[in-house]
């Protein structure tokens, strides 16, 4: 037997051993979570049942995944690391980089028309609302947090607090004073920005893990205030009956003064859904436009300098206090816009919509997409939020794993798997390259060892 055959055999043996260990670990970890299930019987008593087929299937998937990684992905990663870096990008990447953004913008603008053409009026509400509007909300939140985390390098784990401030500001002012959506939208953004600056003052000297802990505490404080200030916020009961936005004063109702009657159309909830879709799309485009413009201004370059090296930033005479405050304020303002839209869209808000899990999801979108990359954040939001929503449509899996199987219960499991996969394949995010904000005479690629998020 040759040395090469011996090496190949030992590699296969090691891969099978790792796959077996992985399957056993997955079985042990998932046994109390998936193997056992408590259900309520006809006598209203809890009965312990088992789901062995589902448990063995997931353990087998974990084992085969580890085997595939050891035999295919790991050798490919090792060979890719040994290859010299390409001086010029391949032709397909140049074409993709040139046409992807115009195509994506055109697609999101035409998305309602595409859905209507495929599903008609009756079946389009779900696809425009649950996929289009929901994804765009997180795209906007991701772009707002990208200012704080991606551009300024300030780790913020309490971003959902500003989202909640915007939502509750709109709900309370709209119900108590009857202000319209168009007045409260900028007002909610200003109030959230005020709270962002208020958070920035006591944490100016903190960085890294300490800053993350303080922002996490701030998010929890806001949530607890919302829960316990029952007279103002309603506590766990939330706020219902929030006024909906109108089309230049025309409500989307079935009355004679409603949108459908005014324009001579048959009443359908799809009109309000399409209006909300284009509204959040306009807000998302506004967020992207302002962020791109700010990057090219002195304040944007100060954010990036602060991210790369705060000591060098101080030595250059940049006021780090004002720089941090502007980052927190701008990021919080866009969260306030998104929060006011969320309240207007739902018509009901409660503290359950503003938990730490929301902050973690938004931060994951920014990190997985590539910190500082607008396109990467948008792609990550589509994959993560769209993937979560599409799991609601996988009812055919009940025929495989049983009627009690609910695919939405495993969204966080797949979310964690996606994070691990990205960390292995693209540790700097989906889009690790970024054009420099300013350049001298000509654009040059910045080496990965000179910046934190990759090569710019």
Question: Total strand count, please?
Answer: 4
Terminal residue distance: 49 Å
CATH topology heading of the largest domain: ABC transporter involved in vitamin B12 uptake, BtuC
> What's the mean pLDDT score?
83
Helix content: 55-70%
Strand order of the largest sheet: 1-2
The biggest beta sheet reads: 2 strands, antiparallel
CA-based shape: globular
- So how many helices? 17
Q: What string gives the helices and strands in order? A: HEEHHHHHHHEHHHHHEHHHH
CATH architecture descriptor text of the largest domain: Orthogonal Bundle
Task: Output the structural class.
Answer: mainly alpha
What does the radius of gyration come to? Answer: 25 Å
Strand percentage, roughly?
A: under 5%
- Domains (count): 2
> Briefly, what CATH class of the largest domain?
Mainly Alpha
List the uncertain runs. Answer: none
Task: Give the secondary structure arrangement, pairings included.
Elements: H1 3-35, E1 36-40, E2 46-50, H2 52-82, H3 91-123, H4 125-151, H5 160-177, H6 181-200, H7 209-228, H8 230-233, E3 239-240, H9 259-262, H10 270-296, H11 298-308, H12 310-315, H13 320-346, E4 348-349, H14 356-369, H15 374-390, H16 398-401, H17 411-425
Helix pairs in contact: 1-2, 3-4, 3-10, 4-10, 4-13, 4-14, 4-15, 5-6, 5-7, 5-13, 6-13, 10-11, 10-13, 11-13, 14-15
Tell me about this structure:
The chain has 456 residues and is mainly alpha-helical. It folds into two domains: 3-82, no CATH class; 100-450, Orthogonal Bundle (ABC transporter involved in vitamin B12 uptake, BtuC), CATH 1.10.3470. Helices cover 68% and strands 3% of the residues. It is built from 17 helices and four strands. A two-stranded antiparallel ribbon has the order 1-2. Strands 3-4 form a two-stranded antiparallel ribbon. Helix 3 (91-123) runs antiparallel to helix 4, helix 4 (125-151) runs parallel beside helix 10 (270-296) and helix 4 (125-151) packs antiparallel against helix 13. The protein is globular and about 80 Å long. The model has no long low-confidence stretch (mean pLDDT 83).
């Amino acid at each position: 037997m040759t040395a090469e055959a011996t090496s190949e055999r030992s590699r296969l043996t090691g891969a099978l051993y790792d796959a077996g260990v992985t399957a056993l670990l997955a079985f042990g970890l998932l046994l109390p979570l998936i193997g056992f299930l408590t259900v309520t019987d006809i006598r209203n008593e809890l009965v312990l049942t088992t789901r062995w087929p589902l448990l063995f299937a997931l353990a087998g998937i974990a084992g085969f995944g580890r085997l595939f990684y050891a035999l295919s992905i790991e050798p490919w990663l090792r060979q890719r690391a040994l290859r010299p870096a390409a001086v010029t990008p391949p032709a397909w990447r140049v074409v993709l980089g040139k046409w992807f953004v115009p195509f994506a913008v055109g697609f999101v603008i035409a998305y309602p028309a595409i859905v209507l053409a495929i599903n008609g009026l009756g079946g389009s509400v779900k696809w425009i609302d649950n996929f289009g509007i929901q994804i765009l909300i997180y795209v906007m939140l991701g772009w707002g947090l990208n200012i704080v985390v991606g551009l300024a390098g300030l780790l913020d784990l309490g971003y959902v607090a500003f989202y909640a401030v915007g939502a509750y500001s709109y709900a309370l002012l709209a119900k108590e004073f009857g202000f319209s959506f168009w007045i409260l939208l900028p007002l909610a953004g200003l109030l959230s920005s005020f709270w962002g600056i208020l958070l920035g003052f006591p944490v100016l000297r903190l960085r890294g893990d300490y800053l993350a802990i303080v922002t996490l505490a701030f998010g929890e404080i806001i949530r607890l205030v919302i829960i316990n200030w029952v007279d103002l916020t309603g506590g766990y009961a939330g706020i219902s009956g929030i006024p909906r936005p109108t089309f230049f004063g025309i409500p989307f109702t079935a009355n004679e003064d409603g949108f459908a009657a005014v324009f001579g159309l048959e009443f359908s909830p799809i009109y309000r859904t399409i209006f909300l879709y284009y509204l959040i799309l306009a807000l998302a485009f506004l967020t992207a436009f302002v962020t791109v413009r700010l990057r090219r201004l002195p304040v944007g370059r100060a954010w990036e300098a602060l991210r790369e090296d705060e000591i060098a930033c101080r030595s250059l005479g940049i006021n780090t206090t004002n720089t941090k405050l502007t980052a927190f304020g701008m990021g919080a303002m866009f969260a306030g816009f998104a929060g006011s839209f969320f309240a207007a869209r739902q018509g009901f808000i409660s503290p359950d919509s503003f938990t730490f899990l929301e902050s973690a999801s938004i931060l994951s979108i920014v990190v997985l997409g590539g910190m500082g990359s607008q396109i990467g954040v948008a792609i990550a939001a589509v994959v993560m939020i769209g993937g979560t929503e599409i799991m609601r449509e996988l009812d055919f899996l009940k025929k495989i794993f049983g009627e009690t199987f609910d695919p939405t219960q495993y969204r966080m499991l797949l979310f964690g798997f996606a994070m691990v996969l990205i960390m292995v394949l693209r540790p700097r995010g989906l889009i690790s390259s970024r054009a420099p904000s300013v350049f001298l005479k000509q654009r040059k690629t910045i080496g990965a060892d000179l910046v934190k998020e990759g090569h710019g």
